[in-house]
Sequence to fold (207 residues):
Amino acid sequence: MTCAMAAELCAETVARGSHEDILASITDPDVHLALWDRPRPPELAWIDDLTWDEIDDIDEVIEAATASRTIVRALEDAGYPVGIEGKALQDEIASLARRFAEIMGCDHMRWRLEVVDTDACRKFHADMVTARLLMSLSGPTTQWIDVDHPEDIRDMRLGAVGLFKGRFWAGDTRILHRSPPIAGTGQTRLLLVINPAVAADVRELAG
Fold:
């Protein structure tokens, strides 16, 4: 099967566009991946030059109403730069978090910013969440397939934003994703993940 044929067959399950408004398409019952297919913003190019050993992973529960200031603090605590460069990353993540909360109608989210240099999540899968936002900020990018055409592996662009339905929303999920296999290659990737918080997450935030 040609790539063009596969693209036509998965068109109903994947909504792809060059504007962020495409992300709201995930609420369509037939759409299992809403893909904002854009390049990484040029003001984030400095991320490739980070010293990864000096950066901590972030895994936090946040309230939609206070997401911006919580994200700023977390990035600074994790070792990301402050100033103009740091603000570009803060604004990018905060904007995506707000958009995600609006689309999903959630008051709380769990967000992660992970430095990955292993083959974690190397098998194609759907997450046990309602929906998950993924954006690769540096290095090799997230891959996805339509379950009916597993041989046609797609790579998200660096900086592209994918909103994937999880098994809590669509048990028979048509679109699966994975982290690209990079173990032993010397490559490192930076991955942003956002999904709605579950009840246990909210209790954790409440302390």
Notes: Helices lie at 3-9, 67-77, 83-104, 199-206. The two ends are 53 Å apart (CA to CA). Residues 31 and 185 are 34 Å apart (CA to CA).
